[in-house]
Recover the amino acids of this structure.
C-alpha cells in the first residue's frame, strides 16, 4: 500500500511539473507550435522519441538479460524522476527498475560507469572536432576572434579529456595516480564542510578501470555509434528548432549551429538543478545569441525553449507513463512468481505420490 501511494504521488508530481514548465515557457513557444505544419510537428516528435530510444539503447548495451522495451522503460522512468527530484534520484530509480528484472549490482555498476564515461568523453571532445570541421569548411560566419579562441580552447580540452581517458583505461598505474591526485584535491574542501576525508580512491579508480575495460573491450563500437548518434541528433533537433522559430538559414548554417550546440552541451556536464533546468536554457541561448544577429534574439530564445520542451519536458511526461507501465508490469510479474512458487510444492507432492 505504501509503495502504491508513493508511486501515485510521484506520477502526480511529474504531471504537475510538466504543466508548470509548459506555463513557464510562455506564449512564444505556443505560437511557434501552432504555426508548425503537421509534418513538421510529427518530425520533431519522432526525432525526440528516437533520441529517447537511443539513450535507452546506450544504457542497455553493457547489460545482459533485458529487452529493448525494458531498457526504454528503465531509462525514461529514471530520467523523468531525475528531472523532477534533485540528487541521484535517477540512478537510484534506474537501479530499482533494472534490479527487479534480475540485473545484478555488479552489472549495473559496470554498465553505468562505462556509459557515463563514454557520454562525458564525447561531450567534452566533440566541441574541438566541431570547430575543426568548421574551420576547414571556411564558413565566413565562423570567422571571428572570439570563435577562434573558443575553438582553440575546445581543441585543447578535447585532447586533454581523450588523453586522460585513454591513459586511465590503458594503464592501471595511471588510473591509481589519477585517483591519488583527485583525492588530494577534494579532501581539503571536504574538511571545510566537516566531511570525512576520502581514502583509497586510487584502489577505487583501479577497480573502476577494470570494470570499464571489461565492458568496452566487447561493446565499445556499438556504444560509440549509439552515443554519437544520440549526440548529433540532439544537435540537429536544436538547429531545426531554431529554424522553425524564425532564425533564417542564412544567419545560422548547419555547421555553425552544430558547433554552437556542442559548446552549449557542455553546460549539461554538471547539473546544479534537476535536469539542468534554467542553466541549460541560459547556456544555449547565450552561445547562439553571441553569433546570431541581434534582431533574432527573440527567435533564438524561442528555439531553445522549443528544443527543451522536446528534450526535457516531453521526456518527463513519457517517463511518467513508462514508470506507471513498470509498476503494472512488476505487479503482474510478482503474481506470476507467486503462482509459480505455489505450484512447485504441489507438483513435488504429485511426483512423490
Amino acid at each position: 500500500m505504501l509503495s502504491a501511494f508513493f508511486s501515485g504521488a510521484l506520477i502526480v508530481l511529474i504531471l504537475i511539473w510538466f504543466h508548470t514548465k509548459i506555463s513557464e515557457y510562455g506564449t512564444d513557444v505556443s505560437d511557434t507550435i501552432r504555426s508548425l505544419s503537421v509534418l513538421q510537428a510529427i518530425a520533431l516528435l519522432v526525432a525526440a522519441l528516437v533520441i529517447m530510444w537511443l539513450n535507452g539503447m546506450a544504457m542497455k548495451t553493457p547489460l545482459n538479460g533485458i529487452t529493448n522495451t525494458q531498457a526504454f522503460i528503465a531509462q525514461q522512468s529514471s530520467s523523468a524522476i531525475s528531472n523532477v527530484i534533485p540528487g541521484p534520484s535517477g540512478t537510484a530509480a534506474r537501479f530499482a527498475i533494472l534490479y527487479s528484472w534480475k540485473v545484478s549490482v555488479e552489472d549495473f555498476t559496470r554498465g553505468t560507469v562505462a556509459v557515463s564515461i563514454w557520454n562525458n568523453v564525447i561531450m567534452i571532445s566533440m566541441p574541438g572536432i566541431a570547430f575543426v570541421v568548421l574551420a576547414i569548411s571556411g564558413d565566413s560566419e565562423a570567422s571571428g576572434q572570439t570563435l577562434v579562441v573558443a575553438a582553440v580552447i575546445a581543441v585543447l580540452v578535447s585532447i586533454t579529456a581523450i588523453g586522460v581517458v585513454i591513459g586511465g583505461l590503458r594503464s592501471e598505474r595511471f588510473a591509481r595516480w589519477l585517483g591519488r591526485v583527485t583525492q588530494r584535491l577534494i579532501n581539503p574542501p571536504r574538511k571545510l564542510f566537516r566531511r570525512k576525508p576520502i581514502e583509497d580512491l586510487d584502489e577505487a579508480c583501479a577497480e573502476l578501470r577494470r570494470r570499464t575495460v571489461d565492458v568496452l573491450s566487447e561493446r565499445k563500437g556499438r556504444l560509440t555509434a549509439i552515443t554519437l548518434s544520440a549526440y548529433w541528433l540532439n544537435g540537429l533537433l536544436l538547429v531545426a528548432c531554431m529554424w522553425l522559430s524564425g532564425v533564417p538559414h542564412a544567419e545560422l548554417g548547419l555547421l555553425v549551429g552544430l558547433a554552437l550546440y556542442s559548446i552549449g552541451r557542455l553546460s549539461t556536464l554538471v547539473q546544479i538543478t534537476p535536469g539542468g533546468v534554467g542553466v541549460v536554457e541560459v547556456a544555449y541561448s547565450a552561445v547562439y545569441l553571441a553569433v546570431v544577429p541581434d534582431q533574432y534574439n527573440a527567435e533564438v530564445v524561442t528555439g531553445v525553449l522549443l528544443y527543451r520542451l522536446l528534450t526535457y519536458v516531453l521526456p518527463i511526461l513519457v517517463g511518467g507513463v513508462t514508470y506507471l507501465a513498470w509498476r503494472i508490469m512488476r505487479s503482474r510479474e510478482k503474481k506470476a512468481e507467486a503462482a509459480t512458487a505455489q505450484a512447485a510444492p504441489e507438483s513435488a507432492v504429485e511426483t512423490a505420490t
Residues 270 and 276 are 8 Å apart (CA to CA). The chain has a mean pLDDT of 78. The chain has one domain: 2-334.
